[in-house]
Amino acid sequence: MSRRIAVLGSNSFSGSDFVDYLLEEPSSQVLGISRSPEKGALFLPYRRRRESNFRFVQADLNNDLTTILRELDRFEPEYIVNFAAQSEVAPSWKYPADWFQTNTVALARLVDGLKDRRYIKKYLHISSPEVYGTCVGRIDERAPVNPSTPYAASKASADLLLQTYQKHYDFPLVTVRATNVYGAYQQLFKIIPRSVIRLRRGETIELHGGGVAVKSFIHIRDVSRGEALILEHGRMGELYHLSPDHGYEVRDVVQRICRAMGEDAAKRTRAVEERLGQDAAYVIDSSKARTELGWRPTISIDEGISGVIAWVSQFWEDILQQPLEYIHTA
Q1: Distance CA 305, CA 155 (A)
Q2: 271 forms bridges with which residues in the sheet?
């Protein structure tokens, strides 16, 4: 896409890969905005590039809305993609107000500020299939929301809020829900990088609930490609799913990691208590994106796992200096 694009939450795993994907097109002009300082090469794939068509601004959606709107007015992006969110599930039970503050209240202030900016051709909202609760049967874009956690409830609230602005103000909204993204540069506490790190350190991998929950693991670059297609060709007001062909039990994915690293999964894993509110399955239908946009996933789970292992090896000394657990920031 050779356009002017603002990416909110550009320091996030999904946001940084989307920036990296956009910068493959030299004519694209990209503005990244995130609340934390710009991270290093361990977590930001685009840092390996030297293009001058990317600019970063540190600004917090909760506290710096005036700065964000001023920077957007200065840049006048045709497209805005919003990855900025509190996105972890388990900690949302401990700090539910923080999740609603960022994912719903701050978003309400942002969209109200953006509704009269006429330079915006399309706004892509990053939602989550968590809003459906447990996905049983064929879950397409018409399925009702049925959240099981504070995180999912805050995202469902945001989705409904944005829909009202699309209906009453003709806000140029399109929405995407992608399943369990993974890949190199992901947060270290996520199941795939965490498993690789634990094996390298000679530690046991804990499987919550025995690892029987079914997740639709999809490589982050397949998701970024899909988001770019939705941004450019998606129909206004529509919701699109991005998902692989089928899901995997978490224990199956961990077993694949063990095999790839020459380890015995039976000896290197143990079952622990399931997380509160853990949904049994996330398997959603992405026929709409495949039919309308010609999108489909291209990176297999084993290829993606190999990429994570290679990334961990490349940055091993840096990883050893990082916390391996989630640290909450309000």
Answers
A1: 28
A2: 207
Q: Tokens representing 105?
A: 């209240």
Furthest C-alpha separation in the chain: 59
Kindly report the pTM of this predicted structure. Answer: 0.94
DSSP 15-43: HHHHHHHHTTSTT-EEEEEESSPP--TTT
Task: Give the Cα separation of 134 and 129 in Å (integer).
Answer: 9
> CA of 287: how far to CAs of 236, 247, 290, 296, in Å?
18, 15, 5, 9
Determine the Cα–Cα distance for residues 267 and 82; give it in Å rounded to an integer. Answer: 42
* Closest by CA position to 82, among listed 227, 216, 236: 227
Per-residue pLDDT tens, the chain, 330 aa: give them: 568 999 999 999 999 999 999 999 988 999 999 999 999 999 999 998 876 899 999 999 999 999 999 999 999 999 999 999 998 888 899 999 999 999 999 999 999 999 999 999 999 999 999 999 876 667 899 999 999 999 999 999 999 999 999 999 999 999 999 999 999 999 999 999 999 999 999 999 999 888 888 889 999 999 999 999 999 999 999 999 999 988 899 999 999 999 999 999 999 999 887 666 555 566 789 999 999 999 999 999 999 999 999 999 999 999 999 988 878 786
Q: Could you give the 3-state DSSP secondary structure of residue 65?
A: helix
Pick from 33, 38, 27: nearest CA to 3: 27
Domains with residue ranges and CATH for the chain? 4-181+218-242 (3.40.50.720), 182-215+246-282+298-319 (3.90.25.10)
DSSP alpha helix (H) spans, the chain: 13-22, 65-75, 96-100, 107-114, 150-169, 191-200, 220-233, 250-260, 265-268, 287-293, 301-314, 316-319
